[in-house]
Amino acid sequence: MPNSIDINLHPNSNLDEHKIIQPPVCIDCGAHAGLITDIILFCGGMSYAFEPNIYLYNILQSKYDNNQNVILSQTAVSNKFHKTEFLMDCGGIFSQGNRIVESIDSTYGMHEVQVVDLSKIIEKYILPKHKRIYFLKLDVEGAEFDIMDSILQKGLYKHIDYIACETHERFFSDGEAKIKKLRDSIKSHRADNVLLDWI
Protein backbone atom coordinates (compact mmCIF):
# COMPACT_ATOMS: atom_id res chain seq x y z
CA MET A 1 0.00 0.00 0.00
CA PRO A 2 1.22 3.56 -0.61
CA ASN A 3 2.68 5.60 2.17
CA SER A 4 0.29 7.67 4.27
CA ILE A 5 0.86 11.13 5.67
CA ASP A 6 1.47 11.02 9.41
CA ILE A 7 1.58 14.55 10.77
CA ASN A 8 3.38 13.23 13.86
CA LEU A 9 6.41 12.05 11.89
CA HIS A 10 9.58 14.09 11.99
CA PRO A 11 11.40 14.90 8.72
CA ASN A 12 13.99 12.35 7.63
CA SER A 13 17.31 13.74 8.83
CA ASN A 14 19.40 11.00 7.19
CA LEU A 15 19.23 12.43 3.68
CA ASP A 16 22.40 14.08 2.39
CA GLU A 17 20.90 16.80 0.21
CA HIS A 18 24.28 17.56 -1.37
CA LYS A 19 24.37 14.08 -2.93
CA ILE A 20 20.77 13.92 -4.08
CA ILE A 21 19.23 15.50 -7.17
CA GLN A 22 15.67 16.08 -6.08
CA PRO A 23 12.95 14.66 -8.30
CA PRO A 24 9.95 16.93 -8.90
CA VAL A 25 7.62 17.03 -5.90
CA CYS A 26 3.88 17.47 -6.39
CA ILE A 27 1.09 18.19 -3.91
CA ASP A 28 -2.13 16.92 -5.46
CA CYS A 29 -5.11 18.31 -3.53
CA GLY A 30 -8.36 16.82 -4.69
CA ALA A 31 -6.52 13.93 -6.30
CA HIS A 32 -9.75 12.30 -7.56
CA ALA A 33 -8.65 9.42 -9.83
CA GLY A 34 -4.97 10.39 -9.74
CA LEU A 35 -4.42 12.06 -13.14
CA ILE A 36 -1.97 14.71 -11.90
CA THR A 37 -0.21 12.21 -9.66
CA ASP A 38 0.17 9.88 -12.67
CA ILE A 39 1.77 12.67 -14.70
CA ILE A 40 4.27 13.56 -11.98
CA LEU A 41 5.14 9.87 -11.51
CA PHE A 42 5.71 9.54 -15.26
CA CYS A 43 8.20 12.42 -14.96
CA GLY A 44 10.09 10.58 -12.24
CA GLY A 45 8.67 12.60 -9.37
CA MET A 46 6.71 11.95 -6.22
CA SER A 47 3.27 13.07 -5.11
CA TYR A 48 1.60 13.96 -1.84
CA ALA A 49 -2.00 13.17 -2.76
CA PHE A 50 -4.99 14.30 -0.69
CA GLU A 51 -8.42 12.84 -1.45
CA PRO A 52 -11.25 13.08 1.12
CA ASN A 53 -13.77 10.96 -0.82
CA ILE A 54 -13.50 7.54 0.83
CA TYR A 55 -14.61 5.73 -2.33
CA LEU A 56 -12.01 7.44 -4.52
CA TYR A 57 -9.41 7.03 -1.79
CA ASN A 58 -9.92 3.26 -1.82
CA ILE A 59 -9.39 3.26 -5.59
CA LEU A 60 -6.20 5.30 -5.19
CA GLN A 61 -4.95 2.93 -2.48
CA SER A 62 -5.32 0.03 -4.86
CA LYS A 63 -3.88 1.96 -7.80
CA TYR A 64 -0.71 3.04 -5.98
CA ASP A 65 -0.24 -0.09 -3.89
CA ASN A 66 3.45 -0.42 -2.90
CA ASN A 67 4.40 2.78 -4.75
CA GLN A 68 6.84 4.56 -2.45
CA ASN A 69 6.59 7.75 -4.53
CA VAL A 70 2.97 8.36 -3.56
CA ILE A 71 2.14 9.67 -0.08
CA LEU A 72 -1.63 9.23 0.09
CA SER A 73 -3.94 10.82 2.65
CA GLN A 74 -7.72 10.43 3.01
CA THR A 75 -8.14 14.00 4.23
CA ALA A 76 -9.55 17.26 2.97
CA VAL A 77 -7.38 20.40 2.93
CA SER A 78 -8.21 23.87 4.19
CA ASN A 79 -6.61 26.51 6.44
CA LYS A 80 -7.18 24.76 9.78
CA PHE A 81 -7.37 21.32 11.40
CA HIS A 82 -10.85 20.04 12.18
CA LYS A 83 -13.43 17.41 11.27
CA THR A 84 -16.42 18.09 9.06
CA GLU A 85 -18.98 16.42 6.83
CA PHE A 86 -17.99 15.51 3.29
CA LEU A 87 -20.75 16.66 0.96
CA MET A 88 -21.99 15.04 -2.25
CA ASP A 89 -23.55 17.03 -5.07
CA CYS A 90 -26.07 15.81 -7.64
CA GLY A 91 -23.32 14.10 -9.63
CA GLY A 92 -23.07 11.12 -7.28
CA ILE A 93 -20.31 9.59 -5.19
CA PHE A 94 -17.60 9.95 -7.85
CA SER A 95 -18.50 13.51 -8.84
CA GLN A 96 -15.66 16.01 -9.08
CA GLY A 97 -17.99 18.51 -7.40
CA ASN A 98 -18.14 16.74 -4.03
CA ARG A 99 -16.68 18.92 -1.29
CA ILE A 100 -16.44 20.09 2.32
CA VAL A 101 -17.58 23.67 1.69
CA GLU A 102 -21.23 24.64 2.08
CA SER A 103 -22.51 26.32 -1.07
CA ILE A 104 -25.61 27.69 -2.73
CA ASP A 105 -25.93 24.38 -4.62
CA SER A 106 -27.79 21.38 -3.23
CA THR A 107 -25.55 18.89 -1.44
CA TYR A 108 -26.02 15.80 0.72
CA GLY A 109 -23.86 14.53 3.56
CA MET A 110 -21.73 11.45 2.79
CA HIS A 111 -19.36 10.83 5.70
CA GLU A 112 -17.23 12.60 8.27
CA VAL A 113 -13.77 13.59 7.10
CA GLN A 114 -10.61 14.93 8.71
CA VAL A 115 -9.52 18.34 7.43
CA VAL A 116 -5.88 19.43 7.64
CA ASP A 117 -4.22 22.83 7.46
CA LEU A 118 -2.37 22.59 4.15
CA SER A 119 -0.01 25.48 4.88
CA LYS A 120 1.15 23.86 8.12
CA ILE A 121 1.59 20.49 6.40
CA ILE A 122 3.75 22.19 3.77
CA GLU A 123 5.75 24.12 6.38
CA LYS A 124 6.34 21.32 8.87
CA TYR A 125 6.32 18.07 6.92
CA ILE A 126 6.93 18.65 3.22
CA LEU A 127 9.40 21.54 2.81
CA PRO A 128 11.77 20.21 5.51
CA LYS A 129 12.11 17.00 3.46
CA HIS A 130 12.55 18.61 0.05
CA LYS A 131 14.44 21.59 -1.30
CA ARG A 132 11.45 22.83 -3.24
CA ILE A 133 7.94 21.93 -4.40
CA TYR A 134 7.53 21.76 -8.15
CA PHE A 135 3.75 21.71 -8.50
CA LEU A 136 0.78 22.35 -6.22
CA LYS A 137 -2.64 21.48 -7.61
CA LEU A 138 -5.72 22.80 -5.84
CA ASP A 139 -9.04 21.43 -7.05
CA VAL A 140 -10.86 21.56 -3.75
CA GLU A 141 -14.30 22.88 -4.64
CA GLY A 142 -14.36 26.19 -2.78
CA ALA A 143 -11.75 25.62 -0.06
CA GLU A 144 -9.13 27.18 -2.34
CA PHE A 145 -9.94 30.72 -1.20
CA ASP A 146 -8.95 30.06 2.43
CA ILE A 147 -5.95 27.97 1.39
CA MET A 148 -4.58 30.50 -1.08
CA ASP A 149 -4.98 33.32 1.42
CA SER A 150 -2.82 31.37 3.87
CA ILE A 151 -0.22 30.39 1.25
CA LEU A 152 0.13 33.98 0.06
CA GLN A 153 0.20 35.55 3.52
CA LYS A 154 2.85 33.09 4.76
CA GLY A 155 4.96 33.45 1.62
CA LEU A 156 4.83 29.72 0.88
CA TYR A 157 4.23 30.42 -2.81
CA LYS A 158 7.91 31.43 -3.00
CA HIS A 159 8.88 27.79 -2.37
CA ILE A 160 6.62 26.39 -5.11
CA ASP A 161 7.38 26.59 -8.83
CA TYR A 162 3.78 26.38 -10.06
CA ILE A 163 0.43 26.61 -8.26
CA ALA A 164 -2.55 25.53 -10.36
CA CYS A 165 -5.73 26.61 -8.62
CA GLU A 166 -9.19 25.93 -10.00
CA THR A 167 -11.61 28.47 -8.53
CA HIS A 168 -15.23 27.81 -7.60
CA GLU A 169 -16.64 31.24 -6.88
CA ARG A 170 -19.93 30.08 -8.39
CA PHE A 171 -20.58 28.13 -5.19
CA PHE A 172 -20.91 31.30 -3.11
CA SER A 173 -23.35 34.19 -2.96
CA ASP A 174 -20.32 36.49 -2.53
CA GLY A 175 -18.27 34.65 -5.13
CA GLU A 176 -17.36 37.75 -7.13
CA ALA A 177 -15.92 39.39 -4.03
CA LYS A 178 -13.95 36.22 -3.19
CA ILE A 179 -12.34 35.93 -6.61
CA LYS A 180 -11.55 39.65 -6.72
CA LYS A 181 -9.86 39.47 -3.33
CA LEU A 182 -7.81 36.47 -4.46
CA ARG A 183 -6.75 38.10 -7.74
CA ASP A 184 -5.81 41.31 -5.92
CA SER A 185 -3.77 39.37 -3.37
CA ILE A 186 -1.93 37.45 -6.09
CA LYS A 187 -1.12 40.74 -7.82
CA SER A 188 0.03 42.50 -4.65
CA HIS A 189 2.31 39.58 -3.75
CA ARG A 190 3.58 39.40 -7.35
CA ALA A 191 2.87 35.68 -7.26
CA ASP A 192 3.22 35.10 -10.99
CA ASN A 193 3.50 31.36 -10.42
CA VAL A 194 -0.19 31.11 -9.44
CA LEU A 195 -2.40 29.94 -12.29
CA LEU A 196 -6.16 30.30 -11.82
CA ASP A 197 -8.68 28.24 -13.80
CA TRP A 198 -5.79 26.38 -15.40
CA ILE A 199 -7.73 23.44 -16.84
TrEMBL record:
Gene3D superfamilies: Vaccinia Virus protein VP39. Keywords: Methyltransferase, Transferase. One of its GO terms (biological process) is methylation. It holds the Pfam family Methyltransf_21. The keyword Methyltransferase applies. One of its GO terms (molecular function) is methyltransferase activity. Residues 28-188 form the Methyltransferase FkbM domain. InterPro entries: FkbM_mtfrase, SAM-dependent_MTases_sf. This is Methyltransferase, FkbM family. It comes from Helicobacter muridarum.
